[in-house]
Write a structure and sequence with these properties.
The complex is a heterodimer of chains A (264) and B (243). Chain A is α/β, with parallel strands linked by helices and 264 residues long. Chain A is 43% helix and 21% strand. The two termini of chain A are 12 Å apart. Chain B has 2 domains: 100 residues, no CATH class; 123 residues, Outer Surface Protein A, domain 3, CATH 3.90.930. Chain B has 243 residues and is α+β, with helices and mostly antiparallel strands. Classes of the chains: A alpha/beta (264), B alpha+beta (243).
Chain lengths: 264, 243
């Protein structure tokens, strides 16, 4: 299954042309509070295509209390569009009631693991479905970390039964930024724990890479994706994200369909 | 421990003087990489914080952003976000307090743009057929407006200036009392200049007064009433009516 991140600039083309694509991923927060045209169009697209919801504000790793008003709206949206699953990021976005709207890294240690695991269980219970969590790109590591990100994720899966959204580009970006082999990360992920893959472009500043979702997927990430498929299988759904300088739908579609060549 | 480190990192990221804090304290919390110091690494997040908010606010307030120019607008965003940090899970609500943060023409222009954003996002509600109003009891009826409607009393020609921005022309702000109806029909947002009396009449109806009470308060002519109801019915401004 190969899908594309649903973006406003493509609404007209999608409704008009009904392109051949297996599914769309919608950013939850873009539709949770909108009763206007975006919601109308999402409903139309959901009649034709499977939808998965992808959030950026669950704040699962924050020291703040969970926001059940947010979760109620998310659950209602998921029901409305018959979302196959709900995903968000292993990160925190704000603290003290203030939101940076960024995907901020966590210190990987037992305290954080227990905190996040309890919240993942609470959210999954509330939503009535296992939460799917994505590895976010990161530009900083904490002195208080006592385990790697992949060890943290594997233990989180063991403790909660959550599924992973393995962003292959993010593995590449974080590996570059933190100086480890991305294949070590992939090797640690248990087969069967992944619900979905993400692919995207990024911006390399030389000293570090920023996960900008701009441009096509680079060859090194396609190679890592092929390695991932070989290790973890192609049953998880694969999705292409393109969020900056977004080209026409045909260009994004062509980029996404390169994944099918990897599967073959 | 987690809360402490998150509060520290938030303080660095959201603080315009985060560089100084990071230089002093980053080594206590962040590891260096092969190419960047601990401070440089955390400041990547600091650098993206305001640009993200500037991008979001420029999307909601494009005419205001254009009127300011990029550098001035970014400075405005920095001052605004310092006083009104985002407290919502959605960036869509970030700019809700921006009109009150401004003065004069800028405030008026921001009110027009905020009304458009709010109307765009409002829940869709079907319109009532006003021809079904019972003629013999019309004055005792209350009309309930659709959610996607806002009324503005403006002190500047901000609607004309917004249109000038849309048309690629220069904005020429002038002080001028005027009234604007912003509403949505078939998922398109409309800005309609209206008279003061029409504004006041709609405001009375929106505050749940009966048609008769609104007539007594505003005292429109028969001709005005005919034109208003003809136009507002066509615009689908009311979702229901009742006593």
């Amino acid at each position: 299954m190969i899908g594309i991140g649903l973006r406003t600039v493509h609404f007209t083309e999608i409704l008009r042309d009904e392109p051949k694509i297996d599914f769309f991923e919608a950013i939850s927060e873009n539709f949770m509070d909108s009763g206007g045209r975006p919601s109308f169009i999402l409903d139309k697209i959901a009649e034709r295509y499977p939808i998965v919801l992808h959030g950026v504000s669950m704040n699962i790793g924050s020291a703040d209390a969970l926001d059940f008003d947010y979760l109620r709206k998310l659950k209602a949206l998921a029901k409305r569009v018959n979302a196959r699953w709900l995903s968000d990021h292993l990160c925190w976005t704000g603290v003290g009631g203030r939101n940076t709207h960024d995907l901020l890294p966590l210190p990987y240690n037992d305290e954080t693991l227990n905190h996040v695991a309890n919240r993942v269980l609470a959210v999954s219970d509330f939503l009535g479905a296992p939460l799917v969590l994505e590895n976010a790109s990161s530009y900083a590591e904490f002195t208080t970390s006592t385990m790697t990100e992949w060890d943290f994720l594997v233990r989180l899966v063991e403790l909660t039964g959550c599924k992973l959204l393995l962003d292959v580009n993010n593995v590449y970006v974080s590996a570059y930024n933190h100086g480890y082999d991305p294949k070590t990360y992939i090797d640690a992920i248990p087969r069967g724990s992944v619900a979905q893959y993400h692919l995207a472009g990024h911006t390399n500043h030389g000293t570090h890479i920023v996960d900008t979702h701009i441009g096509p997927v680079i060859d090194e990430v396609w190679s890592l994706y092929a390695y991932t498929i070989d290790r973890l299988g192609d049953e998880p759904w694969t999705l292409l994200e393109w969020d900056a300088e977004i080209p026409d739908f045909a260009t994004v579609h062509a980029e996404a369909m390169k994944a099918s060549a990897v599967h073959a | 421990m987690l809360e402490r480190v998150q509060n520290w990192m938030y303080g660095v990221i959201a603080n315009p003087r985060g560089i100084a804090v990071a230089s002093r304290e980053a080594d206590d919390h962040i590891l260096p990489s092969r190419t960047l110091s601990a401070a440089e690494r955390v400041l990547i997040y600091n650098g993206m914080y305001l640009s993200r908010f500037a991008e979001a606010l420029a999307a909601d307030y494009p005419a205001l952003a254009h009127f300011h120019g990029e550098d001035d607008f970014n400075a405005l965003v920095a001052r605004y976000v310092a006083k009104h940090p985002s407290t919502s899970y959605t960036l869509n609500r970030l700019g809700d307090s921006l009109p009150e943060f401004l003065t004069g023409f800028e405030r008026d222009l921001a009110r027009v743009e905020l009304a458009m954003t709010l109307v765009f996002d409002e829940e869709e509600t079907p319109s009532a057929d006003l021809t079904q109003l019972p003629a013999d009891r019309a004055e005792s009826m209350r009309l309930h407006p659709i959610k996607a409607m806002r009324l503005l009393a403006l002190n500047y020609n901000s609607n004309e200036c917004f249109q000038a921005f849309r048309d690629g022309e220069q904005m020429r702000p002038k002080r001028h009392k005027n009234y604007l109806l912003v509403h949505r029909k078939d998922f398109s947002v409309y800005r309609t200049p209206i008279t003061r009396k029409a504004h006041d009449f709609l405001r009375e109806l929106a505050s749940a007064k009966t048609i008769g009470e609104a007539i007594l308060d505003v005292r429109p002519s028969q001709h005005e009433l005919f034109e208003w109801f003809r136009d507002w019915s066509a615009a689908g401004l009311f979702r229901s009516f009742g006593e």
